[in-house]
Amino acid sequence: MLDRDSLGELFGKVGVGNQTMLGIMGNNRDVSVGEIFMIYSQRDGHERVFFFRVLGLENYLRQVDDMARVAGTLMVEGDSYLSGIERNMLLSVDGRMLGYAEETGEGWRFRSPRRLPDHLASVYRPIPGTSDKPVREMLSSQTDGSVRVGDLQIGEATLDVPVMIPTDKLPMHVGIFGSTGSGKSNLMMVLIKSIIDSNLDYLREHDSEHPRVSAFCIDPHDEFARGVDKYGIQSVIEAMDATTRADVIKDFYYLTTHKRATKREIKRYTKEIRVLWEEIRPRDLYSIMEFTPQMYSFIDSQFSRHQEEWVEKILNMTEDDTPEGTPKGTLKAVQRRLRFLERSPIFVESGSSILGEIFEAMETGRILVVNTSLMSDMEQFLLTTIVTRTLSDMRRALKSSGNLGDFVRQGEMRLPKPFFGKVKAQAKAFYGKGGVDDESPVRDPRELPVILVTVEEAPSILNPELMRGQSVFKDISRQGRKFNIGLLVVSQQVSVLDNVILSQMNTEVNLRLGNEREIRACIENASINISGFENEFRVMAQGEGIVTASYREMPLPVKIPLFDTVFERDKARYKAKGPPRKERTL
Amino acid sequence: MLEKILTDKFREILKLVFTDITNQQDRRDAEEFSKDEVRIKEHLLDVVEPYPPDTILDDDFLIAAVDGSGTDNLMLLDDIRVHLLSTATTVLDTNTRSEKLFDPISTKALEERLGGQPHLDVHWHSGVRNDAQKKMAETLESIYPLKDVVDIILPFFKDDSSGVISSVSGFTGTDYEKHLPELREMETLISRAQILTNPVVHDELRKVSEYAAARNVLTSDIRPKYLLLDGALSIFMHFVKKYPSMPSGFMLRELASLARKEGVVLCAVSKNHTIPFAHRIAKMAQDAFGEGTKWFCQLPCRDDPGGGLHITEDRTYIPPRLAVPYLFSFSQDNRPSRIDFDRVWWLENVFVRSDPVATRQNEKALFRDLEFMSRDARWYGYPVPLALAHEACKLSYEDLRLAREICKDVRHEIGLDTRKTEPLRADYNL
């Protein structure tokens, strides 16, 4: 039997309602919308704890049918009082059933709301410090994982119940939705730190249940490394001893357009982003900008003819060089679209490319923070696309192969030859099982690190217009799971995202949203039913969110801790013999 | 039916009735009232001088209130009718020294002294000859805490005879002597046995239940300054025998006597009353004292200085025997209410012979307390202890429905036949 006192403070009794919505009559306490209550029920010998989320509050005075009349009398009759009113002052609380935990004999099992608590069941208000352990146990199937988003929020307070995303669910794509100032940057930093922590556990414990996670993290405001306030990812790197650091980031984690402009302490772990024209495929451009059918046809023909030199050839082409039948103006239009490559400091015609090192980092469970603050939108989108496409094509080649010999053939066919030539040996080492000769069998991509690619300002490239064409992201959103590659879609808006990506997204962190349309879109596209949470979104503060996931029954209100707070708490563990990660020991 | 109610013909019938009332009753009353107007305005009506809201009393005091509720139809088993009775007692502390004015004593503390709150009781009787009387006598005996019938009846005779009859031997030589055997048994105290309809039985049981609850307060260690009852301190007298026709009349006087002995002010407040021209008295008060002024007005009897009022001359129930009624209004939004005091107590504590000024001062002190306890915003103008007692005892439709369901369950549990609890006509959807 559960110790009911451990659930928290006895708040009230279940009054009316059904298996989805309940009305509770409770004590006159300072309850806020969004709080989570627990309802202890024992019906037919089944011990259950129902989780209930407050959506609406109303003052209720026993013995008063007309509150307005009483308020009026108090105003008009200045000498009036309310005798013994304290005990009659109650709070009528409406809210939604989130589900229930049931003791099965083998621990608690959480289920969707399909039952009703007992008549007049007691309602408990969780107390931080008292209720954490039972809530953690009851909600373990809803909160467990290895990438920590935040702590379970029970109103304005939080419980020591970490809300995590399981590593194996990351390739099913994650969405982070929130308006400016909702706390997206802090959340990204918390996620990056958590991924580092998870990888550290893997390295230290060789914990195969928590495989490594790689993340290619676009940082449009150059905040992640330095941090928003006191600490950033650089602080985590610096807190590591040399061995740990080498294990976790090797020799760099920060990518930027201009290394010279980087702060001195970060510069040590910095590489410049350079991608060769020859590493760009037509599809990369098709994924980020619109072309007419004539342009598609022209580009495809040039790519077919010149392969890796297609960009250079087109940019240097004159109208006279165009193939017969090319509509007039097509070349100019394509050149106009490609001209930004000529001006770009990162997309270069010749020199050395970073793409191979990105590939290596992503296949070895590392984090890359990519400062795109000095890039144009087009450069940022193209970089994201090239990286995503390259990584997915590598894994696709692997998935299509029986042994390394097959893989090489597939790789040469799918990827730019110069690039593949450079990474081939390394790729064989990563992908081969028990050797690197052509006959060696290959690994299943699911044994490799999960790769998470952030797509910042997602509506610019994940909109219905671009996704209708040959977008790289359309394939990834549908097939990423096979290759263990997931998208981390960051957006201020939900309503403008393409349905394909929204329908393939299985985890959403819904932060404060800007307007009613976005709130509606967010609720409609959540992986589980969160209808009725409109008021919640309206009153959400910075750093508060609701985590929804298709593989979970319960929408989880979450408070994302400040990065500085979690770093201060955990910094000792980055030393070689530091203490283990807190949430893993629970 | 509606098409008939909505016709002009129905309106014409109503017009005739109201015109008739105006022509006969109202005109007669108006004539009588005009004879009383000056006296009421100048001698009987006065303002309440309220305590300021932040007053701190030298001695905070307790006020107890009792109210009851019930139904004469908890269950009907052929011609056997089961009654349900509920009574509730509240006790409030003026508590002017803290911010929680009129703070109720907790239910737990009350239950320790008075038993379960609210108190529920069940009574039954059949339509068989004398059964109602016999069963009622049994129930009254069990309900009322004082068991000796002589002790119950004597206070009435003592008060009514101004102390001449103070024991059974005092009946010797009086008109009551021949009724002495009847006055010794509860069953024969019920001298209205011929008209024991269900509502009459129920009203009697309810009244006695409330008096019993009030008596429990008086015999407890609670010691309130005031004990408020709901209703009036009326006694229905036997026209021939000249004493109460029902035991409750005797019990009320026994209660009043005990209250005096304990130094408790017993009074009864009725929201619903039939005091004639109450609205005219209210208008008179408004004109004389200004809108919003809180006021009271004594309704004297023939023994009071100046005699009774013309408007109550033919209304034998006003003032009630051995009671002093007042009209009062503590809220301009509500119609005046009525309050009755025990006349014996009133003569001893309020009335000062040949000194109307001192009498008025006593009345003002009394109504100042009453007004102070009537400022709860939920029931502004009505004493809050009674309002809370009413809330505690009332039986809602849902309460009764559940009680009836439980009746069925209990019958089933003890192996009796289960019967429908709804009225028979419900079978025909009527």
Order of helices and strands of chain B: HHEEEEHEHHHHEHEHEEEHHHH
Strand order of the largest sheet of chain A: 9-8-21-20-19-10-18-17-11-16-12-13
User: How would you sum up the major sheet of chain B?
Assistant: 10 strands, mixed
Number of helices of chain A: 21
Interface with most residues:
A-B, 16 and 18 residues
- Determine the oligomeric state from the structure: heterodimer
Tell me, rounded to a whole number, the average pLDDT of chain B: 90
| Shape, per Cα inertia axes of chain A | elongated
If helices are DSSP runs of H or I spanning 4 or more residues, what is the number of helices of chain B?
A: 13
The value of Rg of chain B in angstroms is: 23 Å
Second rung of CATH, namely the architecture of the largest domain in chain A:
3-Layer(aba) Sandwich
What best-fitting shape of chain B do the alpha-carbon axes yield?
A: globular
Query: Which spans of chain A of ≥5 residues are poorly predicted at pLDDT below 50?
Result: 582-586
Largest β-sheet summary of chain A: 12 strands, mixed
What Rg of chain A do the Cα atoms give? 28 Å
Helix content of chain B: 40-55%
The percent of residues in helical segments of chain A reads 25-40%
- Reported by name, the CATH topology of the largest domain in chain A is Rossmann fold
CATH class identity of the largest domain in chain A:
Alpha Beta
Task: Please tally the β strands of chain B and state the result.
Answer: 10
Number of domains of chain A: 3
Mind explaining what this structure looks like?
The complex is a heterodimer of chains A (586) and B (430). Chain A has 586 residues and is an alpha/beta fold. Chain A is 35% helix and 22% strand. Chain A folds into three domains: 135 residues; 332 residues, Rossmann fold; 71 residues. In chain A, α12 runs parallel beside α15. The two termini of chain A are 21 Å apart. The C terminus of chain A is likely disordered. With 430 residues, chain B is α+β, with helices and mostly antiparallel strands. In chain B, strands 1, 2, 3, 4, 5, 6, 7, 8, 9 and 10 form a ten-stranded mixed sheet that branches. In chain B, α4 runs parallel beside α7, α5 crosses α8 and α7 packs parallel to α8. The longest helix of chain B has 37 residues. Chain B starts with a helix and ends in a 17-residue tail after the last helix. The relative contact order of chain B is 0.14. The interface between A and B is medium-sized, with 16 and 18 residues.
